[in-house]
Amino acid sequence: MAAERSLYAKEERLSRRKSIDFPFLFLLLLLLTLGLGMLYSASSAQSQYDTHYTDSTRYLQKQAVCAFIGLGAMAIASRIPAKFWYQMAWPLYGISIGLLLMVLFFGESVNGAKRWVNILGLQFQPSEIAKFTLILLFARLTRIYDTDAKKFRYGVLGFGAALLGILIPLALEKHLSAIMLMGMVAVVMMFIAGTSPKWLLTGAALAGLFVLVYVSFMGYAGDRITAWQHPESDPSDTGYQILQSLYAIGSGGLFGLGLGKSRQKYLYLPFQYNDYIFAVICEELGLVGATAILLLFGALILRGYWIALRANNRFSTVLAAGLVTLIAVQTLLNIGVVTNLLPSTGIALPFFSYGGTALAVNLGEMGILLSISRRNNAQEDLL
Fold first, then answer.
1. How far apart are CA 169 and CA 127, in angstroms?
2. Owning domain of residue 213
């Protein structure tokens, strides 16, 4: 009997190991590899300038270290069952709020924005962690509320209170891009949970009103709106970045100038290796190359939702859907800004833009999706 149990346990471990979603993992690693390659191309000129022309890989080296850390986090997360994340939802949510409040008192400014904290020599953005913990808490609340999510008390007030716990500190930081991103992801998750569409539409209208008021009182945000609508009216200041981005996209044509041959990256386009890296992609790889990368993102996102639909419990389904939605919304907003379809938001392109915290956290989140895919055929008690 003991031998049979041992054999069964071994077979179950092998089955779980085989059940990991390899198409999703392949797409993810392919995007990461392309992202690191494009980051080097987009940042090489800026790196040489910042190091007095002694090193063209400064930003690539830092990003590669964070990618290595993120891959380690992904490998670990891929073996952690959903039960662990279910139990850690509230503690991690509280920690995130504490870190966001730390930014207000002990935060460090980078490029004029005070959104970083330094703990034991490690500098990171708490907002990146807060995005994950908000999704995690929403997934737990969805399972707790169940069909009660259709009621205003739970589907609106319950989720809304959890959302405000994160958004209020972000508003005090004037972190409008994170507010907008989390708000959009929250709406999708509330819809999945069962919140009535009429309340979601009402909330969207109120959010739009908030943005208008916020922009009216925050001068820098108002300048972004003006630059978005009429970049040509101030080509040397507020409209400069948008115009340079459009120049890069237009000069790429159908097949691009060639990998590494961007002209705009030579200090013409600001943040060419960060928020506007997609403009360099268009310039070097052209419409064909940029479309191919967008198709890879689309395939990754669709595969992620497929994993969510096959999850073995409601918590895992909503958690996976929330994490995939975060990647999808970030991608759409970034590309919308770079092509001037949307006003500047400061949202990076996942797996491509320079930013160690975002890359490491994103990879760790993808590890959770792999864990969910690994356990699709296994029953799991969350309580």
1. 10
2. 21-374
What is the domain count for the chain? 1
23 touches 44 (CB < 8 A): no
Q: How many helices (H) and strands (E) does the chain have?
A: 14, 3
Q: Are 224 and 234 in contact (CB under 8 A)?
A: no
Buried b (16+ CB within 10 A) or exposed e, 65-89: ebbeebbebbeebbeebbbebbebb
Q: What is the DSSP letter of 348?
A: P
Q: For residue 374, what are the CA distances in angstroms to 24, 26, 227, 300?
A: 12, 15, 47, 17
Q: Is 368 contained in some domain?
A: yes
Q: What is the largest CA-CA distance in the chain?
A: 81
Span 303-334, pLDDT tens digits: 999 999 999 889 999 999 999 999 999 999 99
Per-residue CA distances from 176 to 117, 225, 343, 356 (Å)? 18, 13, 12, 20
* 8 in any annotated domain: no
Question: Which of 271, 284, 219 is closest to 244 using CA atoms?
Answer: 271
CA distances, 337 to each of 153, 228, 296 (Å): 36, 9, 20
pLDDT at 8: 38
7 occurs within a structural domain = no
pTM for the whole structure? 0.88
In a domain, 334, yes or no: yes
Neighbours of 180 (CB within 10 A): 20
Q: Could you tell me which residues come within 8 angstroms of residue 329 by beta carbon, excluding any fewer than 6 positions away?
A: 181, 184, 185, 188
